[in-house]
Amino acid sequence: MFYNKKKYIASGSLSSIAWKRFIRNKLSLASLLLIVFITLTAILGYLISPDSTPFANEQHLELTTKKPGFSIKMLKIVRPEKEQHFNFIHKMLYGERSAFTTIPIVKYYFYLDKLVYETYTGATPNDGEIVKINLTDVINSDNNINPKESILDMQKRIVDNLIINKRFILGTDRYGRDVLSQLIIGTRVSLSVGFISVLISLLIGILLGSLSGFFKGWVDNLIVWFINVVWSIPTLLLVIAITFALGKGFWQVFIAVGLTMWVEVARVVRGQILSIREKEFVEAGRALGFKNSRIIFRHILPNVMGAVIVISAANFASAILMEAGLSFLGIGVQPPMPSWGMMIKENYGYIILDAAYLAILPGLAIMIVVLAFMIIGNGLRDALDVKIE
User: Fold this and answer.
1) How many CB atoms lie within 10 A of CB 349?
2) What does the alpha-carbon distance between residue 231 and residue 233 come to, in Å, rounded to a whole number?
3) Residue 73 — φ and ψ, nearest 5°?
4) Which residue among 152, 197, 198, 230 has its CA within the 20 to 30 Å range from the CA of 374?
């Protein structure tokens, strides 16, 4: 007998077999790499954001709704107050107040010990205000002024260090904020709400599903009744109700979304445990006198985690969509904290104007991340399939 294709029995642990199957799925692997890249971007946050001020909220009303790639000269005037220095971790997590006051300008020249510049107005013709300022006022700090420094040296230092050409890669919004910075910092909200909400839903869903499936009887009836009650309420309405009860804010959104996503986890865990609880290894555990908690958490749950992981990937995507919807309605994350949903809310009116990208860009970000998580979920489902290839 001849075989066109040799088949080998898979060897190694189940997790290694599943991982090998997963990486063979190129689309799922690409989605995983994309999520890793987005996660790193969210973690680094202010360190890679063009606007590293808290909440990426540096506003220049003169620069309202500028097109992607727009560039402008910016005069940086050192603030007179003492600059606060924070460590690396603090800056990465919370940003850092700029040590400069930045002013958009069109042109400038030096006249003796003064800097003369025309402010940018955004109008055509510009017709900005002509301002004269002492060179020492630009440098604006005793620590930065050398008494022996000549006027020419100060002029050179200002040109080299305090007059820059700033480019807005994705343009600016209606408040003159950098859109790219808003997208980068907004990534944190979407990924955080997904992670924390899924964690809350797993804690509640696995606990209730395990109790219901393992003990059956009145415990099962009570938990199933509670699951059905929560299941019958539209998810978005339940989230809105919880949000109103807890208040608007960053952490309230996480809790509200997490408290509505546990139902699916509980149903899956219950169904899986109902089919496993009569297996031989569970009966052996009872015969050996193991406690119910040990049988559940050390012997049964590891056998149902595959299904839980798959549904968690889908819930992660649902949480991101739900947070975006809440922020769009104004009951999610509150200003000035950037959020993709809030960016759509603030700029959806520009869709019919000539700046539709202000709402399309965060919409695309939401779509790409949600699609990536759904593809990862499908890849995990195939990888964790127990059927031998």
Assistant:
1) 12
2) 6
3) -75, 140
4) 230
Within 10 Å of residue 371's Cβ, how many Cβ atoms?
13
The DSSP secondary-structure symbol of 172 reads: B
Radius of gyration of the chain, Cα coordinates, nearest whole angstrom: 29
State the Cα–Cα distance between residues 135 and 133, nearest whole angstrom: 6
Distance CA 95, CA 193 (A): 20
Amino acid at 259: L
150 Cβ contact partners less than 8 Å away, ≥ 6 residues apart: none
Average pLDDT over residues 94-101: 88
Residue 141's pLDDT band (cuts 50, 70, 90): low
SS3 content of the chain, % helix, strand, coil (to 5): 60, 10, 30
Q: Which of 83-92, 146-155, 314-323 has the highest mean pLDDT?
A: 314-323
Burial of 2 (0-12, 13-18, 19+ CB in 10 A): exposed
**Structural domains in the chain plus CATH codes:** 70-168 (no CATH), 179-383 (1.10.3720.10)
Q: What is the pTM of this model?
A: 0.87
Stretch among 46-55, 168-177, 236-245, 366-375 having the lowest mean pLDDT: 236-245
Instruction: Give residue 139's pLDDT.
Output: 81
Burial 79-96 (b: 16+ CB within 10 A, else e): eeeeeeeeeeeeebeebb
168 contact partners, CB below 8 Å, separation of at least 6: 50, 63, 66, 68, 69, 70, 71, 178, 179, 180
Cα dist from 71 to 120, 175, 177, 181, whole Å? 12, 16, 13, 15
Instruction: Classify 134 as helix, strand or coil.
Output: strand
Instruction: Say whether pLDDT at 369 is over 70.
Output: yes
Burial code (b: 16+ CB inside 10 Å, e: under 16) for 24-45 equals ebeebeebbebbeebeebbeeb
Report whether 269 contacts 302 (CB < 8 A): no
DSSP 242-260: HHHHH-SSHHHHHHHHHTT
Residue 223: predicted pLDDT = 94
C-alpha torsion angle, residues 103, 104, 109, 111 (rounded to 10): -30
